[in-house]
Amino acid sequence: MHAYRSHTCADLNASNVGETVRLAGWVHRIRDHGGVLFIDLRDHYGITQVLCDPDSPVFNEVEKVRSEWCIRIDGNVKARDADLVNPKIPTGEVEVFIRDMEVLGPAEELPLIVFGDQEYPEETRLRYRFLDLRREAMQRNMTLRSDVVASIRKRMWDKGFREHQTPIITASSPEGARDFLVPSRLHPGKFYALPQAPQQFKQLLMVSGFDKYFQIAPCFRDEDPRADRSPTDFYQLDMEMSFVEQQDVFDTVSPVLQGIFEEFGGGRKVDAAADWPQISYRDAAKWYGTDKPDLRNPIKMQDVSEHFRGSGFAIFAKILEQEGTEIRAIPAPTGGSRKFCDRMNAFAQKEGLPGMGYIFWRDQGEGMEAAGPLAKNIGPERTEAIREQLGLGVGDAAFFLGGKAKAFETVAGKARVVIGDELGLTETDRFAFAWIVDFPIYEKDEETGKIDFEHNPFSMPQGGMAALEGDPLDVLGYQYDLACNGYELVSGAIRNHRPEIMFKAFEIAGYGEDEVKKRFGGMVNAFRFGAPPHGGCAAGIDRIVMLLADEANIREVILFPMNQRAEDLMMDAPSDPTAEQLRELRLRVLPPEE
Fold this sequence. Notes:
29% of the residues lie in helices and 25% in strands. By secondary structure, the chain is an alpha+beta fold.
């Protein structure tokens, strides 16, 4: 017999009754029923109930074991009594009577309990992550992650892509986030960088003639943490294709992602890829207050400025006298009560705004009445026009925010989400996707008037060189994101592969040709030698698994994540270098500023 096990803790069933078996695993739970010891023995695959009574030659040794001891047992498989069968587990028809036992690894007192669903502080969970990962939910999440990655790989190979690995140590490249720098021992005073993404390398692969590339790529960015983003490193499905237009990329990656969500979504509805809408960046901001809208929520905001221009509501009327302002309405079907309207007004105040105006419509027996301060100020004719535009009726409400869109859009987007959730309008058992397209390449700093890049500077401008001759704020890029349930899952672009167009694009943002060559010399140089049109995208693996696992925090689907301060409490990182290491690298560490 094998030294440690003849079966896993998920293998045994009624067909094994009478066999002598060997199992190994962790003591999940111990129960003492009048001198008979029952142990749930757990390994990665499942749980088997084993038992021991005074007739067992190792009863005294079994009495000593405690939770999370790692043990090996030999025993006889017995059928459980019919009324004791546990249909919830594959081994629920049988139990194993212990004849022999070996302690493989005793456990000290546990800082967190593996059995059950107790909540522990994040610091405890991350410091003892190896114990936290033994918990059933974490085992399930990490298995899901592994299966998702395997399925993605297969689907990409089936579409004719080949996987290639790009460098982990490379040159620093400004791509929107801070680099992690790596000092060079052989070149004192110089630094490598960990790649924020394989962006330049995958474009160089297209110049090299590889046509279809993908990689499950590690990416490194020194970023501030948040619930859906790791502060140090993450993984993405990175892909690039030659001789393609924007729609070709959509048609390639959409079925892959639809298939992943259908395969691992637990029966939740998945919108068909052919039905994923394409929404312009500006429309997404206008309708949803964000470029990653949750389309499970049917609420769509609308511009209602004309109904307030010159109206009796002086605040909005004066706002509209200023250039670049508007009044936007957030419809709230079924939200027509003063209590709910007051609650949403308080929400806006917590978000730093003075409040939100509102109108709600109620039945007065002989007809519908518009209520609320706004309705009284603007009068019945304007109120009715707003109701008709928004398609609302009795029992409904609408909320209003005004000013320059960039000042209130984020809060409006959050309010839309809260309204959808609180009124039960948002579907909870669905994955809803939307391509966000037509991103503006440039933006103007309102204080300095300077033009700079608003989004990816390497996207091909729509219209090519001709588009760059007009107003920079009108230039759109062939850039796109894929949103799902309020998260950005994919980001990509058709690349600017023409050096002369690239130099012009950077010149508009104040970067000279010499600076572009210095920062991106490898890629610019390659584009001089027959670069094909190409484009691609990257999909966040961690975020995909987070959605599939129905988790709110990305750390629940990463094996060994950092905490909110970008610290690894388990491995004590970042740590102080030794004096010898610093001397070898010719570095000196300055004390932190007070």
